[in-house]
Amino acid sequence: MDLPLYTPANNPPFNMARYCLAGAAAAAPDKPALIVIGDPDAAPSEIWTYADLEDAVLRTAGALRELGLAPGDRVMIRLDNTSAYAILFFGAVAAGLVALPASSQLTDREALFLLTDSSTATLACTSPLSTGTTESPPPLRVRAREGGNPEHRPSGNAPLALSPDDVARMMREGPRIDYTPTRAEDPAFLIYTSGTTAYPKGVLHAHRSALGRRPMYQGWYGISAADRVLHAGAFNWTFTLGVGLTDPWANGATAIVYTGEKDPALWPTLIERTEATLFAGVPGIFRQILKYTDLRPATMPTLRHALMAGEAPPPDLFEEWTTCTGRDLYEALGMSEISTYISTGPGVPRKPGTVGKAQPGRRVAILPVDGADEPLPPNSDGLIAVHRSDPGLMLSYWNRPAEQAEVLRGDWFAGGDLGRMDADGYIAHLGRNNEIIKALGYRVSPMEVEAVLATHPDIAEVACAEVVGAFVVLKPGSPTDSANILAFAAERLAAYKCPREIRFVDTLPRTANGKIKRSALVSF
Predict the structure, then answer these.
(1) Which residue in 133, 407, 425, 430 could disulfide with 418, CB within 3.0 to 4.6 Å?
(2) What residue numbers bound the domain in which 506 lies?
(3) pLDDT interval class at 523 (50, 70, 90)
(4) Do residues 355 and 462 share a domain?
(5) pLDDT tens sequence across 51-75
(6) Residues 387, 192, 67, 87: is their CA dihedral positive or negative?
């Protein structure tokens, strides 16, 4: 599949929300587009048909525009992981605004940083946001007409705050409008990710980013309109917004959202009862499912295969999952700036030690770490780079020109992932360039050390940090024998790669989406 090259001279009309919803709403209006499960033992709490979903999105779009918001204004979403979150996100995009998905688990301090850094015009939040200090921006102000509907944005710099009840009314009672005639290069959403500084940075995506996801359809998912997709993550992450909502709807499939307690033992039950055909999550989710449930090939009869991304998995996870379930587990590598772009899938078998191949139509290369922009030959270590013509690539970092310049190499974008491409096009992920550990003068990838230690029979989970220290979660009943683990590593790793110290912990620090929070290891 050839991906179109978008330039200012080739910038066709395109609205991401229209692309995802209008086709199925016209062709299959009564088909379930979104199923919300609150209790795994009960019937779905919500079932949205494509017609109902599009109506709610366009009413929300109309209500947002009625507030006086102008194209390009930011709408920050700090709601729980519910249908309202999804509908407000796509409603903002449909209205030509810029959606800013955020986690409801952020502290007020963290949320205020996003609010001020993005110059947000409207904030939808589960509970009132406190400014906390005199250095923070002015308190949020809310004005309402009779009946509680929000009125126009207040004057001054304070954003308008919307409660969950406000959003619910907008979905039901807002004046339905048509999709705003945006163009492919217009900004659609702004998502914040960890930066190289102490603060997160905003990644601004265009409406065309939805088109840039097309290589995943068959390059990773093998998706069709018959699929029912259950994602284990939260909507503030591009992995969930894309795999859990954008792509199922763009293909006329059904998205499934679970809003209850995230007990890992529940996922197989949810897959069975919702008749999910595709299940997606981070490696930790699959590890926990295998640990806490009794899986057999007869379990989850509708599941065709599972999708995994977000961090490097332990090498034995694939075989264990396939042995227990009889299904394949397809991995992908991605980043907030483009989502996934390298993967295995139904047509790309797994090659041990690699993540997979560049998805069909994507141009991926390995560049020298030192700053040159000429691709390296096969089997060379360097930075994984994506061609800047890929429509899935971000527009820019939000107000971060210096960081923007750092990742551009001629015709290439190199976001900091290290890798090696073999002669067959399979790519091994060697970690993040800014996470490489310096040990005895050598550069050591913590992921390489983790992959070796994860094969130790007593280790359930492991993560490595500075000076090659390994933080180990043992399997139940295993002895706290650091000497044994160090000897195990010495037999399998060069001396400079071996951990200097083993620390036993009950759990590893993880983000809200389940990824290992490596920066937090040093405080353990």
Answers:
(1) 430
(2) 440-523
(3) low
(4) no
(5) 999 999 999 999 999 999 999 999 9
(6) positive
